[in-house]
C-alpha cells in the first residue's frame, strides 16, 4: 500500500511538472503572438492614417488647383472662368453688367514697358475693388478689360456706381518706381441692365448674353465720346 501511494505521488508530481512546462511554452507562444498582433495593428494603423492624410492632401491640392484656375495671378481677382462660374450660380439674376476698359493701355505698355503695365493693372484692380460692395462680382477678363456684376436695383444707383468707379481709377496719379513722376490713368465703362432676356441664356458664356453685348456697345460709345466716362442706355 505504501508503494502504491509513493507511485501515485511520483506520477502526480511528474504530471504537474509537465503541465507547468507546457503552460510556460503556451504562455511564451501567446506573448509572441500578442507582440506580432500588436506590431501588425500599429503598422496597419499607420498605413490607414497615411492613406487618409494622403487623400486629404490630394483633395486639398486639387481644390487649390481648381481655385487657382479661377483667379488672375497678376491682380488676385477672379478671372473669366471664375466670374463665369459665380455668375452662373446667382439666383434670381437681376442687376447690371459693366465692362471696364483702361484707356490707352497699349500706349502705356509701349512707352513705359510691361512691368509698368502690370503695375497699372494691379493698381486699377485694387481701386475698382475698393469702390465696389462686397457682394459685387469683379473679374479681369484679360488684357486691360474688367467685368463687373452688381445686383443694384435701379438705373440711377448703377450709373452712380459706374461714375464712382471712373473717379476712383482716375482721381489720383500712379507713381512710377524709381522716379518722382506720376502717370495719369483713366477708364471707360459700358453699362447694361440685366433683365429677363438673360435668364434664358444662363447656359451661355457671359460674353454671349444680351447684357454683355449691350455693355460692350456702350463701352464703345464711351471711348468715342472722349474716354474717362461711363455710358448707359
TrEMBL record:
It catalyses: 2 GTP = 3',3'-c-di-GMP + 2 diphosphate. GO terms for biological process: cell adhesion involved in single-species biofilm formation; negative regulation of bacterial-type flagellum-dependent cell motility. GO terms for cellular component: plasma membrane. Its EC number is 2.7.7.65. It holds the Pfam family GGDEF. Its cofactor is Mg(2+). Residues 93-233 form the GGDEF domain. Keywords: Membrane, Transmembrane, Transmembrane helix. SUPFAM superfamilies: Nucleotide cyclase. GO terms for molecular function: diguanylate cyclase activity. This is diguanylate cyclase. It comes from Alteromonas lipolytica. The lineage of its organism: Bacteria, Pseudomonadati, Pseudomonadota, Gammaproteobacteria, Alteromonadales.
Amino acid at each position: 500500500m505504501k508503494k502504491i501511494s509513493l507511485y501515485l505521488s511520483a506520477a502526480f508530481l511528474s504530471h504537474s511538472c509537465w503541465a507547468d512546462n507546457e503552460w510556460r511554452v503556451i504562455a511564451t507562444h501567446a506573448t509572441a503572438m500578442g507582440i506580432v498582433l500588436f506590431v501588425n495593428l500599429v503598422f496597419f494603423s499607420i498605413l490607414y492614417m497615411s492613406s487618409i492624410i494622403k487623400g486629404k492632401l490630394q483633395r486639398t491640392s486639387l481644390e487649390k488647383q481648381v481655385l487657382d484656375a479661377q483667379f488672375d495671378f497678376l491682380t488676385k481677382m477672379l478671372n473669366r472662368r471664375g466670374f463665369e462660374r459665380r455668375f452662373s450660380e446667382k439666383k434670381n439674376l437681376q442687376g447690371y453688367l459693366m465692362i471696364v476698359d483702361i484707356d490707352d493701355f497699349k500706349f502705356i505698355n509701349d512707352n513705359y514697358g510691361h512691368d509698368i503695365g502690370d503695375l497699372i493693372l494691379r493698381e486699377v484692380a485694387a481701386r475698382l475693388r475698393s469702390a465696389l460692395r462686397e457682394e459685387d462680382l469683379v473679374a479681369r477678363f484679360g488684357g486691360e478689360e474688367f467685368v463687373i456684376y452688381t445686383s443694384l436695383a435701379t438705373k440711377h444707383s448703377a450709373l452712380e456706381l459706374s461714375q464712382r468707379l471712373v473717379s476712383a481709377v482716375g482721381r489720383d496719379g500712379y507713381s512710377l518706381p524709381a522716379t518722382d513722376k506720376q502717370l495719369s490713368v483713366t477708364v471707360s465703362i459700358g453699362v447694361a441692365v440685366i433683365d429677363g432676356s438673360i435668364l434664358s441664356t444662363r447656359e451661355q458664356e457671359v460674353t454671349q448674353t444680351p447684357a454683355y453685348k449691350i455693355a460692350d456697345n456702350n463701352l464703345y460709345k464711351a471711348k468715342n465720346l472722349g474716354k474717362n466716362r461711363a455710358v448707359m442706355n
